[in-house]
């Protein structure tokens, strides 16, 4: 796969390990005849380390031999998260520290969650772009403040804290962006 064709979320092989691309920046040349540089911020799926990759637009990276399976969370214990494949009911486990960024968005019955399977083992989670969560605790809004764009912190059912507009009340369901952790709208 050419460097110029790689998108965020693509899984490629870099130095023999599968890495998922998390961010891309393009540096255009200032001199005539110079090559455009693509700088990728990636995460190694096996070691979970961050990796910086710089390539010219015509350089190649191989796509990783992995696949995504739609899964459902069964339960968690002190060290692992247990998932079940929705098609063949195969169970996977993954260490909590490997998915600690994704866990605040995961609830039982979450639709659209997929496990990244590499060499028959789960190496990560792919979440939907947004999830719906219920507010368990937030301060009540003050009358007359709904016209301003002030926000207040709200604790959601998974323990995630997001800033919401002042008119939002405890017990409401919200849409949260899983990429940025920001409030999108009421559900």
From TrEMBL:
Record keyword Protein biosynthesis present: yes
Pfam family, one: Elong-fact-P_C
Domain Elongation factor P C-terminal: 131-186
Superkingdom field: Bacteria
GO biological process, one term: peptide biosynthetic process
PROSITE patterns membership: EFP (PS01275)
GO CC annotations, alphabetized: cytosol
Keywords from the UniProt entry: Elongation factor, Protein biosynthesis
Every Translation elongation factor P/YeiP central domain range: 68-123
GO MF annotations in UniProt: translation elongation factor activity
Annotated PANTHER family: ELONGATION FACTOR P, TRANSLATION ELONGATION FACTOR KOW-LIKE DOMAIN-CONTAINING PROTEIN
Family the UniProt entry places it in: Belongs to the elongation factor P family.
Protein name: Elongation factor P-like protein
Gene that encodes it: yeiP
């Amino acid at each position: 796969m050419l460097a110029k064709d790689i998108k965020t979320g693509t899984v490629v092989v870099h130095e023999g390990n599968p890495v998922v691309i998390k961010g891309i920046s393009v540096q255009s040349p200032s001199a005539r005849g110079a090559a455009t540089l693509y700088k990728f911020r990636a995460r190694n799926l096996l070691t979970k380390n961050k990796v910086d990759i710089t390539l010219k637009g015509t350089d190649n990276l191989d796509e990783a031999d992995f696949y995504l399976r739609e899964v459902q969370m069964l339960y968690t214990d002190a060290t692992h998260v247990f998932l079940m494949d929705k098609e063949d009911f195969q169970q996977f486990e993954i260490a909590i520290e490997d998915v600690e960024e994704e866990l605040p968005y995961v609830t039982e019955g979450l639709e659209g969650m997929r496990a990244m399977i590499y060499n028959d083992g789960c190496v990560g989670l792919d979440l939907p772009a947004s999830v719906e969560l219920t507010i368990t605790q937030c301060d009540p809004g003050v009358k007359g403040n709904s016209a301003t764009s002030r926000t207040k912190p709200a604790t959601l059912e998974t323990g995630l804290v997001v800033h919401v507009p002042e008119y939002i009340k405890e017990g409401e369901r919200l849409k949260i962006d899983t990429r940025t952790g920001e409030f999108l709208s009421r559900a």
